[in-house]
Amino acid sequence: MMWILYALLSAVMESFKDFVSKKNIQKVPYRMVAWSFSVFTALITAPLQFIFGIPYLDQTFFIYSIFTAFVFFLSVFIYMKAIELSDLSVTLPMVAFTPVFMLLTSPIILGEFPGIFGILGIVMIVFGAYFLKIKESKHGLLQPFKALIKERGPMLMLIVAFIWSITGNTWKIVVQHSSVTFSIFFIYSIMAIFSSAWLLSRKKLDLGIVRKNFPSLFLIGIITTINELSFMTAITLTLAPFVVSVKRLSVLFGSLLGFSVLKEEGWRERIVGIFIMILGVATIYLLG
Questions:
Q1: Which range of residues forms the domain containing residue 184?
Q2: Which residue of 5, 23, 66, 93 is surrounded by the most CB atoms within 10 Å?
Q3: How many domains does the chain contain in total?
Q4: How far is Cα of residue 203 from the mean position of the Cα atoms in its chain?
Q5: 61-98 pLDDT, tens per residue?
């Protein structure tokens, strides 16, 4: 059961990453936060290759790692834009849909089939999402869902959840064909190249902003490194949907930081929805 400890550590680090990213986005363009996320994680994990060595790499590794890096690169920019647009307590719960999507993607990509109780978990997660905008129900039964879709932040984060349901599976294949430390370094290095090229092409790469805010941006890289090392170790020990389900406890931790530190409003109805979504995730883990 060591995997659950790694998954919980990953959840805590994920929530801190969300919080620090949100704080940075208040003074740094979201594009530069996303760029720092990739570049600093690659730089921090580079020295680990001298300690653990470079494993044998086959064709499968390169195919899946390049695909994973490109898709994950897109998700990072969408993710940063989402938390820029809306409160953490309304955007982060959307990533709880990742294990929902993984009930579809894991059987296709990995051949991993969670149990039938996963359906119950799905219903609970959807019901919890409804509670995030429960005040809107006075305008109609489906209005809470319509309100979430209309708000760009949650809608963008739902796209991120779907992307992560794919990369959570493909990254496991990358690890199986290399190692935990090298897979993180290689994928984040490719992401750093992609993000640098994209920002340069749009003339949006501002290293002056990075120098000015270096400590807080570099902190994101440190937190992400711990997060990814924990997560990747966990998925080598059990089914990927189980690890992702436990990691989604970051929704609760991150939302609590949003309420307590960032003073986000509407916590009463949102916290009910968040707990229902977490309970749905737990159902997928315990009974799925």
A1: 2-287
A2: 93
A3: 1
A4: 27
A5: 999 999 999 999 999 899 888 888 877 767 777 776 77
